[in-house]
Write a structure and sequence with these properties.
This protein is about 30% helix and about 10% strand. The chain contains 6 helices and 6 strands, in the order H-H-H-E-E-E-H-E-H-H-E-E. The protein has helices at about 5-20, 50, 55-60, 90-100, 110-115, 125-130, and strands at about 65-70, 75-80, 85, 105-110, 145, 145-150. The protein is globular and about 40 Å long. The model is unreliable at about 5-35 (pLDDT under 50).
């Protein structure tokens, strides 16, 4: 079956590596669906140049109020306590607030209070449609799943959600 010691070594090493991939601590967070993971935004610093672009009343308030409908896991949902909003959109909002030098104030609201909703009940605007508008950025890039958003066709973007 094996023609050399080298082939046997490679086969045994591969099997050992694969068996170790299945191992993990019993208390691993990945095995507990009730543990909400979040990104630590404490290392993010205020960017004075960007913060200066905010309206004066927002700067004076010291808060960035973000309305969310907390029913779209993993984007935004309540932690196990049933009160604390978590998810990657919550993390993004907190990170953005840090860049502005503000504190994020996350407010749960019904869907039609967060987005413009037409008579049919369908959303008339979303963050994604705002990102896909025709204006070109003068600098920087927006990446979705590692892909530059400007290089994606509109029909490709939903597959990266």
């Amino acid at each position: 079956m094996f023609k050399s010691v080298k082939n046997v070594s490679v086969a045994v090493s591969s099997l050992l590596l694969l068996s170790l991939c299945a191992c993990g601590p019993a208390d691993s967070q990945a095995s507990d669906p009730d543990i909400a993971r979040s990104y630590d935004v404490n290392s993010i610093k205020k960017d004075p140049e960007i913060a200066a672009m905010l309206p004066e009343d927002v700067i004076k308030s010291g808060e960035l109020t973000v309305g969310v409908n907390v029913s779209y896991a993993p984007a935004e949902f309540f932690a196990a306590d049933g009160k604390t909003p978590v998810g990657y959109e919550i993390d993004f909002s907190k990170a953005l607030a840090k860049v502005f030098g503000l504190k994020a104030k996350i407010v749960h609201a019904p869907f039609d209070a967060v987005f413009l909703v037409g008579a049919s009940g369908s959303g008339k605007t979303t963050l994604l449609s705002l990102l896909l508008r025709e204006e070109e950025a003068s600098s920087g890039e927006i990446h979705v799943a590692g892909n530059d958003l400007r290089r994606l066709a509109n029909r490709q973007v939903p597959q990266y959600r």
